[in-house]
Specification:
Elements lengths: L1 E12 L2 E12 L2 E10 L3 E10 L2 H17 L3 E2 L16 H10 L5 H18 L3 H4 L2 H10 L4 H4 L7 H15 L13 H4 L2 H34 L4 H8 L3 H13 L5 H7 L5 H14 L4 H9 L5 H26 L1
Antiparallel strand pairs: 1-2, 1-5, 2-3, 3-4
Length: about 325
C-alpha cells in the first residue's frame, strides 16, 4: 500500500504520553484510511476506518475517525484535517454559550415543560416544532432561564422576531424561578475550561462527520439497490425507511447526477400514457418546482384519504424526475 497522507498525533495527560498516526493509503484503486499506534510492549496496532473505492466515503470515515481521536485528547502535528483549526481561532460567544449549556445538567422537569410548551406552540401555529425552538435552544433556556424578553434576546437562536413572539410566554415560565446564572452572559467565555471546550468541539465534529458517513453509506446502499433492480417495496425493508423517504432520497440522487431512471421507470409502469401526458402538460404549464398545484390539477381535491394523497405525491415526484430528464435529453 502506498501512503498518500500521514499525520502524527500526540496526547499528554495524567496517564502519560501517547502517540499515533492517521493515514490514507492507496493500492490498485482501493483506498484505505485508519489509525495506527506502536510501542515497545504491544507493538504496532491498527484501526481501519475505511477500505474501498469511494473517495467520498473515505473522506467522511477519515474525518469521523480523526475527530474521535482529537476528542480523546490527541493533537495533530499538522492541523487542517477537519474543517478548520479549533484552538487557533477565538470562539464566538454563541458557541461558548452552547458549550457551557451542554456541559451543565439541566433540570429534566423544566426541559419537559419546555418541550410541552414547544409542542403546543407548534400545533397552534401549524408549523414544525424545531421552527419554534430546537433541542439545543431548549437546553440553553433550561440552563440560563431568561426572566425577561430582554434577557431572552441574549440566548442564541432568539433574535428579534422569536423574542417578540415568545418572550412573554417564556418570561412568565421563568418568572420567580431560582437560577445561578446572571445576565448579561459575557462571563461564560471565562467559565469554560479550554480543554473541555476543545473536547466538546471535537465531539460535535465527530457527531457531524458520523452523520455524514452514515448518509454516504445510505446513499451507496440505495444506489446498489437501484442497480440490482429492487423495487421501492424491497428497499423499504432493506434500508429501513418509508417510501416517502426513499423517493425523496432518490430525488436527491437525481439532483446529484446519478442515474435513477431504472427505478423510476419500474415504479411508473402502472401510469397510463394519458396520465403521463396530462402530468407533462401540467408541468409545462405550471412549472415543476411546486407539487401541490400539480396535484390539484391532475387529481383534484383529495377524496381517498391521506394514504391515497401520499401515493399521488409519490407518483408526481417520480414523474417529475422523468420529465426533467426527458427535457434535458431534448436540449
Amino acid at each position: 500500500m502506498q501512503i498518500v497522507f500521514l499525520n502524527r498525533l500526540d496526547r499528554v495527560d495524567a496517564r502519560g504520553e501517547d502517540r499515533g498516526q492517521v493515514f490514507i493509503g492507496e493500492q490498485q484503486g482501493t483506498w484505505t484510511a485508519g489509525w495506527r499506534t506502536s510501542d515497545a510492549q504491544s507493538g504496532a496496532e491498527e484501526e481501519i476506518w475505511y477500505e474501498g473505492i469511494s473517495w467520498e466515503e473515505l473522506l467522511a470515515a477519515f474525518r469521523h475517525g480523526a475527530a474521535g481521536k482529537m476528542r480523546e485528547g490527541f493533537r495533530p502535528m499538522i492541523d487542517g484535517m477537519l474543517d478548520e483549526p479549533v484552538w487557533e481561532r477565538k470562539p464566538q460567544q454563541a458557541v461558548m454559550l452552547q458549550c457551557y449549556a451542554d456541559l451543565q445538567e439541566a433540570d429534566p422537569d423544566l426541559v419537559n415543560r419546555l418541550r410541552l410548551w414547544r409542542r403546543a406552540k407548534a400545533s397552534e401555529e401549524g408549523r414544525s416544532a424545531y421552527l419554534v425552538a430546537t433541542n439545543r435552544e431548549l437546553q440553553l433556556l433550561a440552563v440560563f432561564r431568561p426572566a425577561t424578553p430582554e434577557e431572552l434576546g441574549h440566548i442564541p437562536g432568539f433574535a428579534k422576531l422569536k423574542t417578540e413572539r415568545y418572550g412573554s410566554d417564556l418570561s412568565e415560565m421563568f418568572k420567580g424561578m431560582p437560577r445561578e446564572h446572571a445576565f448579561p452572559l459575557d462571563w461564560v467565555s471565562q467559565a469554560v475550561d479550554p480543554e473541555r471546550f476543545a473536547e466538546w468541539t471535537f465531539r460535535q465534529k465527530e457527531q457531524k462527520y458520523g452523520k455524514t458517513l452514515a448518509s454516504v453509506r445510505d446513499k451507496r446502499s440505495l444506489l446498489n439497490a437501484i442497480r440490482e433492480g429492487q423495487s421501492l417495496a424491497d428497499m423499504e425493508s432493506l434500508l429501513q425507511c418509508s417510501r416517502r423517504q426513499l423517493v425523496e432520497r432518490i430525488e436527491r440522487l437525481d439532483e446529484e447526477g446519478y442515474d435513477v431512471l431504472p427505478i423510476i421507470d419500474r415504479e411508473l409502469t402502472a401510469v397510463t400514457a394519458e396520465e403521463w401526458t396530462q402530468a407533462s402538460e401540467a408541468m409545462v404549464e405550471l412549472g415543476d418546482r411546486y407539487l401541490k398545484p400539480l396535484l390539484l390539477k391532475l387529481y383534484g381535491e383529495a377524496t381517498g384519504g391521506d394514504q391515497e394523497v401520499e401515493r399521488q405525491y409519490e407518483r408526481l415526484r417520480m414523474m417529475r424526475i422523468r420529465f426533467r430528464r426527458e427535457r434535458q435529453t431534448a436540449i
